[in-house]
Fold this sequence. Notes:
Layout: H1 2-19, H2 29-41, E1 47-49, E2 52-56, E3 66-72, E4 90-92, E5 95-97, H3 101-118, E6 127-133, H4 144-147, E7 154-159, E8 167-171, E9 173-182, E10 186-187, H5 196-209, E11 223-231, E12 237-238, E13 241-250, H6 256-266, E14 270-273, E15 281-282, H7 288-295, E16 300-303, E17 315-318, E18 333-335, H8 336-354
Parallel strand pairs: 3-6, 3-7, 7-17, 8-16
Antiparallel strand pairs: 1-2, 2-6, 4-5, 5-18, 8-15, 9-13, 9-14, 10-12, 11-13
Helix pairs in contact: 1-3, 1-8, 3-8, 7-8
Amino acid sequence: MENVKILSYEAIELLKKLVETPSFSKEEDTTARIISDFFEGKNIPLQRKKNNIWAYNLHFDASKPTVLLNSHHDTVKPNKSWTLDPFKALIEDGKLYGLGSNDAGGCLVSLIVTFCHFYERDDLSYNLVIAATAEEEISGKEGLEIVVPELPEISFAIVGEPTEMHLAVAEKGLLVLDCAAKGKSGHAAREEGDNAIYKALKDINWISSYQFPKVSPTLGPVKMSVTIINSGTQHNVVPDLCTFTIDVRATDQYTLEEIIEEIQANIQSEVTARSIRLRPSSIPMEHPIVQAGLKLGRNAYGSPTTSDQALLDCHSLKMGPGHSGRSHSADEFIYLEEIEKGIAQYILMLEDVIGNKG
């Protein structure tokens, strides 16, 4: 497809600019400008809120359902193991090196040019909206979360994250619970007090052994891990408080509220959720966009990691060029070939669903 070659060239040129521009979470102003300039160069009207950019297809029709294409342009900070300049878009041996090249710059630019491919089409059965959003790497509240209320109702979404263009049809949610076991202080040398650590240990033992009965066919069981524990002030004082934190990876079999209720019903400690924003997400295997990917020989799987997909209430598919194992790694890179193939697959899948035969 000659058009894919052209789109791939445009995507790679845009990616090089993004890589060479620092865009740590909450500091994405300049990359937002670069993305805006790209759309303006194609005479595509856009909207901006904070560091988020979005645009609609030319023949947007409010009577049609809408598909969201989304990925993020913020990055983590480079770790100390980098041997290359993280802000130099180096192309070598078919790879483009640089911070954010794999997570998720390659996905973002591929989705942007895919949107441009469909932009002027007047025969689509769906509208398209592209959103390049901020603060994904910190699950921030001024990224996709503030864009969604500005959009029409979304029928389904494709969220660009590096999956080797396989189909992440489900994604675990994240629930962080702060727990407090309360006792009574006393002198450790005498039979005094009510040791909060012992109370916490009973609760932690339950957490470590309990299995939620419903298991997701794509995501497996709900996983709970106690990751932080704090108690005590000195060796001879029975502690009256022991706090601990539970990292819960939720599946599509339970709401976050149901998980909290089950935990609180079985432990003595007080349970406080830091947030219930990052919910599990999924899309049915029979959904047309999933079927379109399966017809191309891609695999469907459940993802244990979280993304902005957790902020969407609609069916959503996580899929993009690149490999998850390269994300946040030193000397991060993406193969140029992955970008080209990713664009081609995005186009074929969307054509199957939203084209004039969709």
